[in-house]
Structure formats: structure tokens, C-alpha cells
Fold this sequence. Notes:
It comes from Hypholoma sublateritium (strain FD-334 SS-4). By secondary structure, the protein is an alpha+beta fold.
Amino acid sequence: MSDLLANVTASIKAAKIIPDVIRQSNFVPSVLFSIVWPSNGTEVIVGDEIERDLTDPEPEIKLSPMALPKEDASYTLVMTDPDAPTRSNPKFGQWRHWVLPGVRLPAANIDETAVFLLFEEPTGGITISPNAAEHGSDPATRKNWDAMEFAKSHNLKLVGVNYLETKAQE
């Protein structure tokens, strides 16, 4: 299992997710997860490249905790683009796609990267104000958003990461 975790860590460092999104240079996930689009059978492990057209509708996640989660554990799942609108033109910086709090574990454009961050919530979960930027779709509230600052402000602990890169359909 440690080889798998080392491979995940090496992959997210090679993709510059550490340090561009995750500023903890020594981060090692305690939860592994894949991103799944049941409508077309696409599953992303870590860093797979897929066609943009395969990323609709919103995906599901398959979680694999490295240890049994606490009975009352809940998580917040974040999807962010670290270099919007594209890697070659990151003029908007980190772009928040969505924030999904209260996730319980069971017993993209051309040249786009999507990073999925899984955070363990503090006991009792978190509340995001209905007026918070995380509920808005206005581009002004989405560009230059910072996932790790959001996590810090809500006392969230990063436990897992996955990412994908989309490409144009040929």
C-alpha cells in the first residue's frame, strides 16, 4: 500500500498540484478515490487524461480509505482548476468548480486540469453560508479562489487528492 501512496504523491508533485494547489510539500493521502462517470463508464484513477466530452454530467466518486473512517466522519469534496482557463494561459489562477460538504463514506475545457480534493470535516460538519462565494456561479467569485485557504477557514483536513486532464475530442 505504501508504494501506491508513494505513486500518488509522486504523480501530484509531477503535475505541480503540490505546490500549486496543495502547499504541504509532505502531504501523503490517507484516502484514495477515483472519479467515475457512470453514464459512460469512464473512471479516472490519478492523473488520467480523458476527452472533455466524457466529463458530463457531474461524476461520482469511489472512496477507498486506508483505514476505517470514524463512525461519524464526513468530508468536503472540492473540484478546482489550478490554472484557469488553461495551463498555457492561467490568467484566472485557481478556479472553483464546486464544493460539496457533508460527504459520507460508505462501510473541463481543452488543456484543462481538474483537481479533486477530499477533506475530512471537523466533528459536527461544516456550514457554508448561503451567501458565501462557494454557492455563487459568478466568474468574479470563482477565479483566484484558493482551496487550501477555504479548507483552513473551515478547519478541514486534506486526506485525499485526485486529478484529471481533459483533451479535445479529435
